[in-house]
Design brief:
The complex is a heterodimer of chains A (324) and B (279). Chain A contains eleven helices and 14 strands. Chain A has 324 residues and is an alpha/beta fold. In chain A, α6 links the parallel β6 and β7. The longest helix of chain A has 16 residues. Chain B has 279 residues and is of the alpha/beta class. Chain B has a five-stranded parallel sheet with strand order 1-2-3-7-6, sandwiched between helices. In chain B, α8 links the parallel β6 and β7. The chains are: A alpha/beta (324), B alpha/beta (279). At the A-B interface, α3 and α4 of A face α4 and α5 of B.
Amino acid sequence: MKLLHHAAYGPLEVRAIRDGFGDGLLEAAQDNQKVVALSADLTESTRVDAFAEVFPERFFQVGVAEQNMIGIAAGLAHEGYIPFAASYAVFSPGRTLDQIRLSVTYSKNNVKIVGCHAGLSVGPDGATHQALEDIAIMRTLPGMVVVVPCDAEEARKATLSLAAHHGPAYLRLGREKVPTLTTKQTPFEVGKALTLTHGTDVTVIANGPLVFWALKAAHELSKTISVRVINFHTVKPLDYQTLLAAAKETGAIVTAEDHQVAGGLGSAVAEFVSAHHPVPVIPVGVKDQYGESGTVDQLMERFGLTSDAIVAAITQAMEMRDAR
Amino acid sequence: MIKQLELKANEIRSSIIEMLLEAGSGHSAGPLGFTDVLTALYFEILTIDPHKPEWKDRDRFVLSCGHICPALYATLSHRGFFPRSELNSLRKLGSPLQGHPHRGALPGVETSSGPLGQGLSQAIGMAEAAGLQDGRWRVYVALSDGEHNEGQTWEAILYAGARRLHNLTALVDRNNIQIDGYTEDVMPLEPLADKYRAFGWHVLEANGHDMAEILASLRHARAVFEKPTVVIFHTIPGRGVDFMEGDYKWHGTPPDKKQAKQALAELRSLRGKIRAEHE
């Protein structure tokens, strides 16, 4: 199986996606003195600590007060700054929807909401800390950009891109270490999906940690089925062109994400495909359940976010297509 | 000068009544109750230029309690930010005078507001931004008393006190009413001044209808350099219109035609009184 865009598959460096955000934030801040950062008592675990150390005057510690954090970020953006407001996704956007809606998106304030520890990949902390609905919430806000990087390197690039993009954005980051699939040379553009394998039989659209499992599924099937794997790191704006081509050329789609099936990437794909080129869209994701404590591997297994689940979904999608 | 400001406030109140009648919905009591403070701010205190609403060094005014926006709209218009004729479009389709303020829709409106409890946080961000670049502007933010029920308001009060944001002045419209009744019945706020003091703020109290007191308190606030200042303005909701004064039922309703006529007549006679008193 040949991988495109310098992406690698095989023995890979393993690194937490949030680490890439920390690197990107520091780089963005070195490039542009308007970049500022806010933390709600989670500076180290959201990886804002390096920024805070290098740029203490541009760092705002608000305490455990996410709503106030978003409001202050909006006020800073109102004055031309580029604030990155970081917390856990269950808290922000979890409890800050009203603040994001009024003070950020409706007000067109250039605030970057960073939601860490998103998805089941939080592991032992359990359901209270596993945000599985954040993408659904954020993508319904007019003007909001939603980006879900698949590895640390992509998170670094996403952070730099969002710093340069004028407008509100939500950057969703997992906690666990994942294989680094992309390299420094892999292109990244907000709103431009990245085709990782040129398949012709079926398409798997994934983002975040599920990109790795999508590649694994494609690899396992490679002798019999030609699977197109596309990294849809940007859920909004969705790359309609790439999606339409995949629907037309393969006629069957599987989506995979560490999020509720309701409202996430799979929904965004289905909304577009059903209106423009109806083909089967089979979602892999969490099905109207809360998570629980456990190791990440155990949780992925229990909730069906595995390469096996993707293989099963591929079979189902192709059968549906062929039965027509 | 006091007389001029009082007359201006009276004219703005008349505009508010006319706007609400034309709109057929909206809040009456709050806007009338805060008109004197807004008049003092826009005609005497704020460093602003109506012809350059985005001027970088302007003082920022954030209306956190967006529902009293008819008072802000009327004041901005009387101050020259946009033509008086626009006021009649309040709450109508396509109007820049949205039912609650929208940033960018109208010159002079700094922020979007309506959902309570967010303005102080936004104002803090603007005050911090001044600190980052040695900006000379001050940030003023108006809060209703009812929005002190919101947790975010207290998060922001805690933060501003801790950061000693002396370029920030909060103006509390202490009119004692909220939608469901009197504030002390719905969710008591007193002792409000002590609460602010305990959170590290400099606290002033003033009669929100005494122009001399309003001006003195706002000037005093500018001279406090070690902490943020809050001015608790004691106001009477519906001020200037007898049958609306102090009655929480007027919080969220507009006058009908007959009531508006009576209100405007009352305001006219008040105008005569202001002229006579100062002569």
